[in-house]
């Protein structure tokens, strides 16, 4: 049975200063990106954490170079349709393939249902740019299938990352402070209320991960051209998604009208 989406009340809003002050302890090993690199509007760029580091540092890769590609070595995700483990980097051609790697929070996040709906509606434009969509969420393949079946969303483009490995090596935020939207982020969510209601007409909380630490994960958006990172975005909080026009622009020559 579909679950009515409950939107956060004002009492749940955490101030930016207090929420952003909470950080997961930084890992001891990480790969730094050059400073001063020119980036597209909207990119959040700092460092990529090494695959062995474990916890997220709350920093995302700068665009340009292959450091993000290198960091993803050894990271596998689970196909939603079969549960089979697939090396993430094997999902696109490292020589010239273009990939849009969308990291959702988890399969029970109503804002992520909206994002998944936007991604699905953009697939024609991704195709015209020669870009492959790879959507990943925190949880197990059975949780991913809930979103795929009920949204619906094409399962062949949907993967699960129960241990949050891709999120960790790409330095995406994790923690309680950023899970409760700031007042600015909450305003953005309410500005998309019609879109969210449409995307969540069959919504259910059953897609949320059993391990509640996964609920505290934030997402991000990455565009790769072969091994090169063309675009990087980390969500500052729940519902803070990358502008789709910027994502499409990073894919190459494609109309975003």
Automatic annotation (TrEMBL):
<dbReference type="GO" id="GO:0009507">
    <property type="term" value="C:chloroplast"/>
</dbReference>
<protein>
    <recommendedName>
        <fullName>Thioredoxin domain-containing protein</fullName>
    </recommendedName>
</protein>
<dbReference type="InterPro" id="IPR036249">
    <property type="entry name" value="Thioredoxin-like_sf"/>
</dbReference>
<dbReference type="Pfam" id="PF13911">
    <property type="entry name" value="AhpC-TSA_2"/>
</dbReference>
<dbReference type="InterPro" id="IPR032801">
    <property type="entry name" value="PXL2A/B/C"/>
</dbReference>
């Amino acid at each position: 049975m579909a679950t009515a989406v409950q939107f956060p009340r004002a009492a749940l809003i955490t101030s930016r200063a207090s929420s952003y002050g909470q950080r997961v302890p930084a890992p001891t090993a990480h790969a730094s990106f050059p400073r001063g690199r020119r980036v597209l509007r909207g990119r959040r760029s700092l460092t990529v954490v090494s695959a062995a580091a474990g916890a997220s540092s709350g920093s995302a890769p700068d665009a340009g170079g292959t450091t993000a590609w290198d960091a993803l070595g050894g990271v596998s995700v689970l196909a939603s349709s079969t549960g089979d483990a697939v090396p993430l980097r094997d999902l696109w051609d490292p020589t010239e393939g273009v990939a849009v790697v969308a990291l959702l929070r988890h399969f029970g996040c109503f804002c992520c249902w909206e994002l998944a709906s936007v991604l699905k509606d953009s697939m024609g434009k991704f195709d015209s740019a020669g870009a492959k969509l790879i959507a990943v969420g925190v949880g197990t393949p059975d949780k991913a299938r809930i979103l795929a079946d009920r949204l619906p969303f094409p399962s062949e483009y949907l993967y699960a990352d129960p241990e949050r490995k891709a999120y960790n090596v790409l330095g995406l935020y994790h923690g309680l402070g950023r899970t409760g939207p700031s007042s600015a982020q909450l305003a953005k969510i309410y500005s998309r209320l019609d879109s969210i209601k449409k995307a969540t007409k069959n919504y259910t909380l059953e897609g949320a991960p059993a391990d509640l630490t996964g609920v505290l994960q934030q997402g991000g958006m990455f565009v790769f051209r072969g091994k090169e990172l063309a675009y990087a975005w980390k969500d500052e909080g729940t519902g803070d998604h990358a502008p789709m026009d910027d994502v499409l622009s990073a894919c190459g020559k494609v109309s975003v009208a």
